[in-house]
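SEQUENCE-TO-STRUCTURE ENTRY
===========================
What this section holds: a protein sequence and its matching fold, both as plain text.
Question of interest: how does this chain fold, as expressed in backbone structure tokens?
***
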Amino acid sequence: MGKPVCVIVGIGPKNGRAFAERFAQEGYAVALLSRSTGYSSGLAAELGGRAYACDVTDPSAIKQAFALIRDDLGEVDVLLYNAGSGKFGTFDDVSDDEFEKGWQINVRGLLQSTREVVGSMREKGSGAIIITGATASLRGKPFTAAFASAKAGQRSLAQSFARQLGPEGIHVALVIVDGGIGTDEESSKDGTRLRPSDIAHTVYHLATQPKSAWSFEVDVRPFKEDW
């Protein structure tokens, strides 16, 4: 029997890298999806994983990437949806295209990625879908007109998934990241930035939580964050 498969959608030097490293350490075959493989291919080589180019604003690219993953690694056991960029600015400053792109990345991309993995999870009666959320999903501020609305839509969609899929044995959870994210190399003693490996610790815990005590929404923040 092969390794369990973890797909991370959205790879960068902070959270994406930390998630990939943690799940690889725990014995997962990791598939790294990002718009280009310039960074992710090097990380995949380090971890013995696979890197795939996938622009989540393109539905056909999502289908193609997940088809390749199934062929290369097998069915997906854990989906980490870490794609969540967006345009910051007031509604006066954000264009219609920028507004819509935030929705495509945060909401539609999550919907389509989930559709690609949920079939095999249903057959097994198990699986985990963990989404990287943001405090913006809980409150809109003038400069987050586009980003907050997209993250709020993502949060509501994730909650809909959790209510539907939980009884089928599939754990859906949302991690609300509240605060600036540093690097593991930076000291966290001042309590002002989150360390990616510590966020990954929470994500891995959610992906392996016992069914009798599942969490849906968990917030993480540095201990000096004003909230």
In short: The beta strands are 5-9, 29-34, 50-53, 78-81, 127-134, 170-177, 180-181, 193-194, 217-220. Helices lie at 15-25, 40-47, 59-72, 96-124, 145-165, 196-207. The mean pLDDT is 95. The first strand starts at residue 5 and ends at 9.
